Amino acid sequence: MDEGSDFVSTTPSLLWALHKAFRMRKNARISIIDRSKIRQPIQHISTIRPRMRAKGLLEGISYSGKLEYVVYGEIEADGIINDFSLEKFLQMVNSDNQIQKILGSDILFNRAYQKSLMKFDLICQSPIRRWSLAHVVGTVFKFLFDQEENHPLEGLFKSNFSIDWGLEGRIE
């Protein structure tokens, strides 16, 4: 029997995607997509929640999905910039102490912390040095965007990355 659903979950938040992938435990994969190439409508999870509740699909589940958007069907290949396993991402993170510190990998990838907001609050308590930001942001960007430089989504990525990890407030 096939498992899965009729929709693909998406988010503008790398932090949220990594948190969800880590909680999946087995064979988790993340895809970087270009929303401008998605042909079908993209809806916030809150717009489909009432229909899912009516079908009995959310019994006993309390989930706001603040950062989750769904796409019905599949995302065409030209909309996928990169696809990688969580394991491969963790290898990249673990190879660089600066990336580990800025991403808060000891917190983000720790099963003791169940909620993404709890993880975010703890990560934001860790100060960072300005000089390490360019290296970390550049390295993570190149990994996510399949070694491509100067991608049209680079500015959006950097903005979302800064918000996800509270970079402005952590610089010492």
Architecture overview:
- With 172 residues, the protein is α+β, with helices and mostly antiparallel strands.
- It has one domain (7-170).
- The protein has helices at 14-24, 45-54, 86-94, 97-103, 105-108, 116-123, 130-144, 154-164, 167-170; strands at 7-10, 29-33, 42-44, 69-72, 80-85.
- The strands form 2 sheets. A 3-stranded antiparallel sheet has the order 1-4-3. The protein has a two-stranded antiparallel sheet with strand order 2-5.
- The termini are far apart.
Concise synopsis of the structure shown:
46% of the residues lie in helices and 13% in strands. It is α+β, with helices and mostly antiparallel strands and 172 residues long.
How much of the residues is beta strand, in percent?
A: 5-15%
- Rg, Å, rounded: 17 Å
Number of helical regions: 9
> What number of structural domains do the residues give?
1
- Helix and strand composition category: alpha+beta
How do the strands of the widest beta sheet line up side by side? 1-4-3
Order of helices and strands: EHEEHEEHHHHHHH
Overall mean pLDDT stands at 86
DSSP helix fraction: 40-55%
Largest sheet: 3 strands, antiparallel
Total beta strand runs: 5
Unreliably modeled segments: none
Q: Choose one word for the global shape.
A: globular
Alpha-carbon distance between the two ends:
53 Å
